[in-house]
């Protein structure tokens, strides 16, 4: 799935439990991922967070069991509780600074 450049925020629970979602391309315009936006996307394996992203909400990626790695861009100033909770196969988290 490819989101258009006009998207600046992914709303609360927008893709919650979209179990068929395997890959999503986020636009450079994205600034905020709200609470639970990708919660329970058990097949999500490939996601690249844009460099201009500023904040990630509570449990935004929780339960993304196929996610093995994620890179948090340098501009992210706010990550909330459990944003990567219960990601059973998560091996690598890179925090750019």
Q: How would you describe this protein?
A:
The chain has no helices and 8 strands. A 4-stranded parallel β-sheet has the order 1-3-5-7, with no helix packed on it. The termini are far apart.
Task: Give average pLDDT, whole number.
Answer: 95
Largest sheet: 4 strands, parallel
Q: Note the gap between the termini.
A: 28 Å
Order of helices and strands: EEEEEEEE
Number of DSSP helical runs: 0
Percent helix: under 10%
Please tally the β strands and state the result.
8
Strand content: 15-25%
- Poorly predicted residue ranges: none
Structural class: mainly beta
Give the overall silhouette: globular
Q: What does the radius of gyration come to?
A: 12 Å
Q: How are strands sequenced across the largest beta sheet?
A: 1-3-5-7
Which properties best describe this structure?
97 residues; 8 strands
Structure at a glance:
This protein has a four-stranded parallel sheet with strand order 1-3-5-7, with no helix packed on it. By secondary structure, it is an all-beta fold. The protein contains no helices and eight strands.
Secondary structure blueprint with pairings:
Layout: E1 9-10, E2 23-25, E3 32-33, E4 46-48, E5 55-56, E6 69-72, E7 78-79, E8 92-95
